[in-house]
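Repro:
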Amino acid sequence: MRTSNNRAKIAVAGSREKYFINPSIGYKGTVKILQRYRGNIMFGCGDSPLGGVDAWVKNYCLSNNIPIFLFPPKSFSREAFIRRNRDMVLWCDKLICIFAEGIRVKSGTFSTLMFALKMNKPIEVYIINSRERKIIQVIPKLMLRKGRLWIKGWSIVEEVEI
């Protein structure tokens, strides 16, 4: 679904600042990923007070006059964050997931990714390795088992220096 002025809506979900070994490299990597997108776009992200990717996307958009739609959680309960992340997926045309250091399967970013896959949304998945100063783009290897979608591994698409 596009906005009335036909902007592509790109949601970004990602790790909190505390999961990055070097948050300043995490920030630089996030900006490098966002800079790939040009043209008639609008970003959407959480508005978490916990910092990390949400705050970096917001900062990048506000600093560069890029339209942004914020999804603050209604409360600080686990359910409120899950609802917020689902709302982002329902809103967007594409989802970008940015993980710190590795993929944490028990994270909000991972559950957002799984919901987007179930909704057949286009996705891009990145891991920012701040120790090695790399952005690693991966794609999930999917399988269906007993009617449920599973990720059985990852394939590396690209590695880029930060």
